[in-house]
């Protein structure tokens, strides 16, 4: 298949682009490099630099595309609270431009990188897909709005769409790994200690109602996540919009993550415990029973594999 990957110079997008190429697909990456990296685009992919508004119609106008995998987005929750208009413009506005370009050029299949942040603070965990969607940030709100647009495009224009909702992605795939600036994800921030970048890791609260007192979050290896996107391509049928969570079903605590990082790196990794951050729920874990039943997907790589691959990437051992 000839596929367009938006945001394919970013972390998840670059890994999925690499997996698609390994599976024999022809890949074109469209990315404006506002947060991505040109050297993260797989060598066998063709790279077009530009925004979705500027370049999606021109690229799709080449013809031959069978589907789009849409990762391009602003994704920092805190930034979205400070600059909501930016997030509505870049996430929803640019997505609408992409969908209209797809419609104009007869490309009706899309896999969308959504987020479990659309659920906000859940009533129960693990979170199923039919849980109330009550996002607590403009980031989550924009992603939920895009899901709504895809539902309408499936109904009105016979799009075949699949939205994948997930929390924390970790690990690496060879030379494709996590390089955010600023970095807000726990595992790469913990690994900054054994890398010598910072002296200790900050933990926000150790008095939650969890087994060890620290927050529990869902983590999925980026390769498992990528494989779900490949499966979703086969599930995107005209006139349907499917929504799947990608989760472990149990999650890992902050303390568990740090302990595994210590074991993998052989470094003591000092910890500084501070007060809770406002709005941090004790447990956020997504149920993935629906995609397991429908598509046979399940996560195969555990927390140790995520940390080991992330550590190899951080040390340049997987280049």
Structural features:
single chain; 319 residues; alpha/beta; 7-stranded parallel β-sheet; 3-stranded mixed β-sheet; 10 helices; 14 strands; 37% helix
Description of the molecule:
This protein is α/β, with parallel strands linked by helices. The protein is 37% helix and 18% strand. The protein has helices spanning 11-22, 52-60, 77-82, 84-104, 138-157, 186-191, 222-235, 254-265, 289-295, 303-314; strands spanning 2-6, 26-31, 46-49, 67-70, 109-113, 160-166, 168-170, 201-204, 216-217, 219-221, 240-246, 252-253, 271-274, 283-284. The strands form 4 sheets. The protein has a 7-stranded parallel β-sheet with strand order 3-2-1-4-5-6-11, with helices on both faces. It is globular.
Beta-strand content bin: 15-25%
How far apart the termini lie comes to 27 Å
Arithmetic mean pLDDT: 95
**Helicity level:** 25-40%
- Trace the largest sheet across and list its strands: 3-2-1-4-5-6-11
Number of strands: 14
What string, H for helix and E for strand, traces the elements in order?
EHEEHEHHEHEEHEEEHEEHEEHH
Topology:
Elements: E1 2-6, H1 11-22, E2 26-31, E3 46-49, H2 52-60, E4 67-70, H3 77-82, H4 84-104, E5 109-113, H5 138-157, E6 160-166, E7 168-170, H6 186-191, E8 201-204, E9 216-217, E10 219-221, H7 222-235, E11 240-246, E12 252-253, H8 254-265, E13 271-274, E14 283-284, H9 289-295, H10 303-314
Parallel strand pairs: 1-2, 1-4, 2-3, 4-5, 5-6, 6-11, 7-10, 8-13, 9-14
Antiparallel strand pairs: 9-12
Helix pairs in contact: 1-7, 2-4, 4-5, 8-10
